[in-house]
Design a protein that fits this description.
- Strands 1-9-18-17-16-15-14-13-10-11-12 form an eleven-stranded mixed beta sheet, sandwiched between helices. Strands 4-3-2-5-6-7-8 form a seven-stranded parallel beta sheet, covered by helices on one side.
- It folds into two domains: 6-226, 3-Layer(aba) Sandwich (Rossmann fold), CATH 3.40.50.10260; 230-502, UDP-N-acetylmuramoyl-L-alanine:D-glutamate ligase (3-Layer(aba) Sandwich), CATH 3.40.1190.20.
- It has helices spanning 14-26, 32-49, 65-79, 97-108, 141-150, 201-205, 263-274, 323-334, 343-351, 353-360, 372-379, 383-388, 390-401, 436-449, 454-474, 487-502; strands at 10-11, 57-61, 84-87, 112-114, 125-129, 157-160, 185-189, 207-211, 225-227, 251-256, 279-284, 299-302, 312-315, 339-342, 366-369, 404-407, 413-415, 421-423.
- The chain is elongated, with a radius of gyration of 25 Å.
- The chain is α/β, with parallel strands linked by helices.
- The protein binds ligand NAX and potassium ion (K).
Amino acid sequence: MHDNAPMDNDLYTVAQLRAIEQSAYAALPPGTLMRRAGEAAARFALELLGGRRDRPVLVLAGPGNNGGDALELASNLADAGIDALVLHLPGQREASDETASAHERARDGTVGFIDMLPPGGDWGLVVDGLFGIGLTRALDGQYRDLVAALDALRCPILALDVPSGLDADTGAVIGPDGIAVRATHTISFLGNKPGLHTADGRDHAGQVRVDWLGVDPAQLPSPAARLGSAELFAQRLRPRRHNTHKGIFGDVVVIGGAHGMAGAPVLAARGAMYLGAGRTFAALLDPGPGYDSVQPEIMFRPADGFEFGKRTLVVGPGMGGSAAAMRLLATALDSDSPLLLDADAITLVGASPDLLSRLAQRSAPAVLTPHPLEGARLLGTTAAAVQADRLAAAREMALRTRATVILKGSGSVIAHPDGSMVINPTGNAGLATAGSGDVLAGMCGALLAQGWPAWEAALGAAWIHGAAADLLVAHGIGPIGMTAGELPAAARAVLNMLVNETGV
Ligand SMILES: NC(=O)C1=CN([C@@H]2O[C@H](COP(=O)(O)OP(=O)(O)OC[C@H]3O[C@@H](n4cnc5c(N)ncnc54)[C@H](O)[C@@H]3O)[C@@H](O)[C@H]2O)[C@@H](O)CC1
Ligand SMILES: [K+]
């Protein structure tokens, strides 16, 4: 059993990892780190093989130190009696003395060597040691063909350090038409990496384990970002007292619902209600429905002329871009209310320097929940550019707006205006469905209404929203066909579970 240490949640950039590597390297006899990496990876490989130790293991070894780690792993597996076969492409030259020695050790032992992928192949496990953090360009030629051929295999794939082809900083597959190994498991050396957890990272890295190769934690720099966990908002998870009333838990007003778009604010209002807002209003731009027959507790009002007071405002779901929408948004921005901007409200802010400066000048809490295209509008760029470096994009949005930002997508990035960043680890593909963002907006609004600071409300809402989707999948409800309307009740179950287990 491998338990995650708290520092496993710290995420380091390649530049930071190089610095950690250099100081550890200088303090140890040559080859020590590579040997340790090979041992740690071999232990993991044996765990993954389980009862299938009679099956051969295919080890792909590249030219750099990632390949050296792979060769060390192969020697260790062979020593453990496993039939380990190294695929070493023709013409490949070892880039370092350590890798050359690892190669020699493997040649001297019982490791087998091949120079092309045999057809078929009933592998117990495939290990990807082609490239790690030293990858500088897209995979091409024989490497590309090899990685493409792995997709046909039906066995676990263990990536060493980083799945080959993936950018360890951003989680983007390198190259415009790039390719990267799709691992089921990744063992990350000398610290965890942001690119394993966002953008394409989750699809390519699979389950991530961190091995520190014995480095002294006191020598570590402060991480560039962190992986989210319930501990980051545990302080706010308070059990409710008996002697309370609805006025204590705040009011949420969802402002949106242009003609034909009433579903979005209704979903947001349900999200708010199920996460414990005292009272929830749907303030609609279009007359729309008078009430929600599924959730009649939601109070419907015309947005025009509605007194917001100090209620928490969730602005944007289905709001459209009309002059009336813009007026309501300006009023909300100028208010002292805790504020959440989603969807059309973010697009409007992106199109208006005036609205942007009103947002940046607010003193009351503000959270933005853009998807990549809305984020791109805010930054004046394209969704592809946002996705190419989600952490940098989220940080820039938070700096410009002076608000907490949740950049949605696989591995949502939560950015604080002070530069802090967290990647949310929960959730699954079931959330890629219409309305799930509306529910998130309402949920975050409910936490703001209950007095959570913007940063913790964003962390909590993103984590609980993802965990709700994971809970639904565990019950066979999705990911295919999961609907946004199923999320609020699951999120309520997650929140109450957290309060019972973690709450102070
Ligand atoms: N140096 C050390 O002591 C340690 C190294 N470690 C391992 O070493 C890795 C980093 O090693 P390296 O810096 O050697 O880098 P890599 O092993 O990731 O690859 C670098 C090599 O690949 C070549 N290359 C880069 N992109 C290519 C492409 N698209 N097609 C073909 N060739 C390409 C480079 O010219 C270089 O020769 C880490 O990811 C980790 O696995 C860890 O074991 C920790 C200790
Ligand atoms: K690799």
